[in-house]
Amino acid sequence: GNSVTQMEGPVTLSEEAFLTINCTYTATGYPSLFWYVQYPGEGLQLLLKATKADDKGSNKGFEATYRKETTSFHLEKGSVQVSDSAVYFCALVISNFGNEKLTFGTGTRLTIIP
Amino acid sequence: DTGVSQNPRHKITKRGQNVTFRCDPISEHNRLYWYRQTLGQGPEFLTYFQNEAQLEKSRLLSDRFSAERPKGSFSTLEIQRTEQGDSAMYLCASSYPWGAGVLNTGELFFGEGSRLTVL
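Structure tokens for the assembled complex are given below, as produced in the milestone run.
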């Protein structure tokens, strides 16, 4: 089956630190990969995505590169801010007509301290 | 575009009672998904609809759970004879069908969720 494994949290960093949140996947097929973010008191929202190998998704200073050879999609940001404090979820979908649903990882809680 | 709306936001009930949650998707979206999220876990797929047709149900969705989308617009998720293990956040999301060309970016738009507490 399909699954996503995320770096366990919580992760606490100082403002302006470099961030990496690891994500690896197992998929029976060729997935598209996503990072979703959940800010306190809000719903999940798409942060970035990549649909094929070597694609790089980016948004709000975050980046992730689809690495087929290592089945990974690690999230990175060069300089985090307090406002980045949230829970981050890695997810995949296999496009297969009639079976197109997201599979999520367990989430990584990120706290940025000033 | 008012986003995906879920009601109620929080429901506290006693074991054995029935509860119903409602989801109003983004109006142009014809796919609607229900997920369940427990503390410290990622969302788990429950079921989804394309228009009024329920296309897939997870094994997580026991016989006590039923979802409907009668007119292809809003959806309801009913849980009968609630158990303490049903306590969770129930998330609704909507999207265009996967592969719908420029209309679909693969993104699901989530509501803020309905939190269920079963005492």
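Chain B is about 0% helix and 45% strand. The two ends of chain B are 36 Å apart (CA to CA). Further analysis is deferred to the final report.
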